[in-house]
Amino acid sequence: MKDLTVTEVRLTPILVADPPLLNTQGVHQPYTPRLIIEVVTADGVTGLGETYGDTKYLELARSLAGRLPGHPVSDLNGLFTLAGSLDTEGHSTDGTADVGGLRGVQTADKLRLSVVSGFEVACLDALGRALELPVHALLGGKVRDSVEYSAYLFYRWADHPEGVAGESDDWGAALDPEGIVAQARRFVADHGFGSFKLKGGVFRPEEEIAAVRALAEAFPGHPLRLDPNGAWSVETSLKVAAELREVLEYLEDPTTGTPAMAEVAARAGGLPLATNMCVTTFPEIPEAFTTGAVQVLLSDHHYWGGLRNTQQLAALCRTFGVGVSMHSNTHLGISLAAMTHVAATVPNLHHACDTHYPWQHEEVLTERLTFTGGRLTVPDGPGLGVTLDRDRLDRLHRRWLDDDGSMRDRDDAAAMRRADPAWTSPAVPRW
Ligand SMILES: O=C([O-])C(=O)C[C@H](O)[C@@H](O)C(=O)[O-]
Ligand SMILES: [Mg+2]
Prior knowledge:
Layout: E1 6-17, E2 22-23, E3 26-27, E4 31-41, E5 46-52, H1 55-67, H2 76-84, E6 94-97, E7 105-107, H3 108-131, H4 135-138, E8 146-148, E9 151-154, H5 177-191, E10 196-199, H6 205-218, E11 224-227, H7 234-244, E12 250-252, H8 258-267, E13 273-275, H9 285-290, E14 296-299, H10 301-304, H11 307-320, E15 323-326, H12 333-345, E16 375-377, H13 390-402, H14 412-417
Parallel strand pairs: 9-10, 10-11, 11-12, 12-13, 13-14, 14-15
Antiparallel strand pairs: 1-4, 2-3, 4-5, 6-7, 8-16
Helix pairs in contact: 1-3, 2-3, 5-6, 6-7, 7-8, 11-12
The protein binds 2,3-dihydroxy-5-OXO-hexanedioate (GLR) and magnesium ion.
Magnesium ion (MG) binds next to loops.
GO molecular function: glucarate dehydratase activity; metal ion binding
EC number: 4.2.1.40
Pfam family, one: MR_MLE_C
């Protein structure tokens, strides 16, 4: 009999290089915080997890890490009970929006779930390694052998603002329809993606409509999405919907709040609306689903509370006839492997998943995960099927240690102020 008892939990906060990607709140910092979680069992098996690394998540993760030793990695329900008792006092959990509104509401529960999700993945990885079973088998088994991802297109600058230390890449700027189409072509050449999502809310809606039209012309028949992160009024959303109805697979978070989304959905002429903003917690589901505000829900195991909660969310969506897709924030391969395992088990996942992964040239794994034809093969090895590279982890942790604190919390508006000192987070609706 294996001894599955947790004897040690290692937490390693890291800073990962990120390009100057633009969104409605500002621009990505040159480095983004992530947290790598290692759960070690009495038998010496180590499981890996990854989640947000900003200070508030890290502090809670430290409390949870202190309580986990002595519990078996198989006791996932017990893990959630432990997490439920974490004290979130002192952190912003007042129901207002997070990261400038890009990740939905902040509540104490969501903060806990965003932390425990990384531990759940690490426990499942350890359990899978101990039992020599892939994580998808522990989740009930895969229903597909590969998972499709979409190209996540961003307006971007060539470099971070002058005077800001950061890594450079060879992507160049993309600030108009030609730049976006060129970026999409490179995503296709490098990874074979067949569907495309444009992060909008950056320029006036007419410019973003032109970019989507250019994509539709360059890639006829390919699924396209536009996501302005709630930056538009109901009327603007309706105008964009009318312009792009024929070419969009779905319009993501055109406007802010469930009632406004419901109004757009009712008048958008059948164009489906998707969200990773107005529904990011279970309590937000009833209003959104009963008012028809959302036709596609973007799951994200990080803030929904792990892989099993993602399956439960998908079951609810199935019950209400709502589609499922998958959201992503900046992440590395541990998260991508976890996303792929759970996505493989969700029967009603009929849209390509979002991933930021191609924008990250750094890794903490020995090998990068590679897309073929825009798809990842579902790993069948034990656990997540990935291996930690300790030297790479140490390098990114060293960067976190050396940072003066300015990069340890994601703040896209503050990053934008380095280029434009007058910048403040735009009020919504912006247009
Ligand atoms: O679909 C989304 O809303 C996102 O991916 C949110 C992210 O924060 C994205 O806007 C980003 O990274 O700039
Ligand atoms: Mg979105």
